[in-house]
Design brief:
Layout: H1 2-15, E1 25-28, H2 34-40, E2 46-49, E3 52-54, E4 63-67, E5 72-76, E6 84-87, E7 94-98, H3 106-109, H4 117-120, E8 124-130, E9 132-135, E10 140-145, E11 147-153, E12 156-158, E13 163-168, E14 171-176, E15 179-181, E16 187-192, E17 195-200, E18 203-205, E19 209-214, E20 217-222, E21 225-227, E22 231-236, E23 247-252, E24 255-257, E25 278-283, E26 289-291, E27 294-296, E28 301-306, H5 308-314, E29 332-334, E30 337-339, H6 349-352, E31 356-360, E32 368-370, E33 377-378
Parallel strand pairs: 1-2, 2-5, 3-6, 4-7, 5-8, 6-9, 7-10, 8-11, 9-12, 10-13, 11-14, 12-15, 13-16, 14-17, 15-18, 16-19, 17-20, 18-21, 19-22, 20-23, 21-24, 22-25, 23-26, 24-27, 25-28, 26-29, 27-30, 28-31, 29-32, 31-33
C-alpha cells in the first residue's frame, strides 16, 4: 500500500513538470479556433480556452483536435454555468487525439489499440487537459497513445459512443476528478496496456462499463464512484494486444453501487455477455488487491473473480491459442463492505444461479478473500488470505 501512496503523491508532479522559461499562454476566445492555437504551439505552451461551444474542423474529419508535440496543456476555463465544450462537428470519430505523429491519420488510427508508436517506442512527453466537456464523438472523447507523463483532470465526457477517456500504451499518468457518462458500447474511463497510472476521484455513470484497466501494470483505482453502469469496475486481460499481462492493480476506497443498467454491448463482442448488475469484476489478471471498497445494490454480484475462458465460453469461443494467461492468479479481496448485491433475478439461468455478494468461478491459483463484510458468496466457502 505504501508504494501506491507514493505513486499517487508523485504523479501530479510528473504530469505538471515545470514548463520551460520560453513557454507561452495562448488564449482562445469564443468563436476562435482551438485547432489554430495548437498549430502555433511549441513544447511547453499552455492553450487556455474560454467558455463556449467549439466545433473544430469540418464534418467527417477523423479528429476534432490532434496533438503531436511534447508538453502541451489544454486548459478550459469552465465554470458550472459556463463550460468549455468541444462538440462533434458531424461524423467525427475522436474528440482529442494525442500521440506521436507516426500514429495519427486514418491508417494509424484504424486499430486504435495497436498504434505504430506501441511497436517502435516513440513517445509524447507530457500532456495535460483540464476543464473540457467532450461531447458526442462516434468513438472516443479523448484518446492518448504512447504518452509519458499525463494529467487528465476535471473534465466531462458525455455521450461518446465507444470510450470516454482512453489512454493506451502510456505511462506515469493521472486521471482525476473527471465525470464520464453515456458511453454505451464500452468503458467510460479506460486505461489499456499502460504502466503506473492513478485513476482517482472520478465519477462514471450510465455507461456500459464505468471504469476499466486492461493489460496494464502497477495502476491504482482509488476513491471513484461508479453507479448506474452495467459493470462498475473491470480489471481484465485480453489476448492479441501489444502488452501481454495485467498485474499489480490496487482497487481501493471506491463506491460501487446500483450498476444495473441494461447491457448495450455489440453482439459478438465480449462486452455483450457482461451480466447487468456487476459491481467489480477481475477477469483474468494477476496480483490485484481489491480492498476497502463499498459495494452495494448491484443486482448480479458485488465482487467477482473469473477466468477470461469463462467470458470466451459464454461467447461460444474456445479458450485455445491465446498469447496471455487467461486465469486469475494471486488476487486478494480484503476488507470490503458488500450489501444487497445479487438480489435481482437474471434472465440467464447460469447467471441466476451465481447471484451473490462475492463470486469466484474456481479458476486460477493463489486467490484469496479475508475480512469482507458480506451476506452471500458463490461458492459458500472462499479461500482465506494467509
Amino acid at each position: 500500500m505504501k508504494v501506491f501512496r507514493l505513486l499517487l503523491a508523485a504523479l501530479p508532479l510528473v504530469a505538471f513538470a515545470a514548463a520551460p522559461a520560453s513557454a507561452r499562454t495562448l488564449i482562445v476566445h469564443p468563436g476562435g479556433s482551438i485547432r489554430a492555437a495548437i498549430s502555433q504551439a511549441v513544447p511547453g505552451d499552455e492553450i487556455v480556452v474560454l467558455p463556449g461551444v467549439y466545433k473544430e474542423g469540418a464534418p467527417g474529419d477523423l479528429n476534432a483536435l490532434t496533438v503531436t508535440i511534447d508538453e502541451i496543456a489544454l486548459i478550459g476555463r469552465s465554470t458550472p454555468e459556463h463550460p468549455v465544450v468541444l462538440e462533434n462537428a458531424g461524423g467525427q470519430s475522436f474528440g482529442v487525439w494525442v500521440s506521436p505523429s507516426n500514429s495519427t491519420g486514418p491508417a494509424a488510427e484504424a486499430n486504435d489499440e495497436t498504434p505504430p508508436c506501441g511497436s517502435d517506442g516513440s513517445l509524447i512527453h507530457g500532456f495535460a487537459i483540464r476543464g473540457f466537456t467532450l461531447r458526442g464523438f462516434q468513438k472516443h472523447g479523448l484518446h492518448l497513445a504512447c504518452v509519458d507523463g499525463f494529467n487528465i483532470s476535471q473534465n466531462v465526457s458525455e455521450d461518446n459512443a465507444v470510450y470516454g477517456l482512453f489512454p493506451v500504451l502510456s505511462r506515469n499518468g493521472l486521471l482525476s476528478s473527471n465525470v464520464v457518462r453515456g458511453t454505451e458500447l464500452d468503458a467510460g474511463i479506460y486505461v489499456g496496456q499502460s504502466d503506473s497510472v492513478v485513476i482517482a476521484n472520478n465519477r462514471a455513470e450510465n455507461n456500459l462499463i464505468g471504469l476499466e484497466v486492461e493489460n496494464s501494470r502497477n495502476c491504482a483505482v482509488l476513491a471513484n464512484e461508479l453507479s448506474d453502469n452495467t459493470l462498475g469496475i473491470l480489471v481484465d486481460v485480453l489476448p492479441f494486444l501489444v502488452k501481454k499481462t495485467q498485474e499489480t492493480t490496487l482497487v481501493a476506497y471506491n463506491k460501487v453501487h446500483d450498476n444495473n443498467k441494461v447491457n448495450t454491448g455489440v453482439p459478438g463482442d465480449i462486452t455483450a455477455v457482461i451480466p447487468s448488475g456487476t459491481g467489480i469484476l477481475l477477469l483474468g489478471g494477476h496480483t490485484a488487491t481489491v480492498t476497502l471498497n463499498q459495494v452495494e445494490n448491484n443486482g448480479f454480484t458485488g465482487i467477482a473473480v473469473a477466468s477470461l475462458c469463462l467470458g470466451l465460453a459464454l461467447e461460444g469461443i474456445p479458450c485455445t491459442g491465446l498469447d496471455v494467461d487467461p486465469d486469475p492468479n494471486g488476487n486478494r479481496i480484503i476488507a470490503n463492505q458488500l450489501e444487497e448485491n445479487g438480489t435481482i433475478p437474471q434472465a440467464n439461468p447460469f447467471f441466476d444461479a451465481l447471484r451473490a455478494d462475492l463470486n469466484w468461478d474456481g479458476s486460477g491459483t493463489g486467490n484469496c478473500w479475508s475480512g469482507n463484510q458480506f451476506a452471500t458468496s458463490t461458492p459458500a466457502a472462499l479461500p482465506a488470505c494467509q
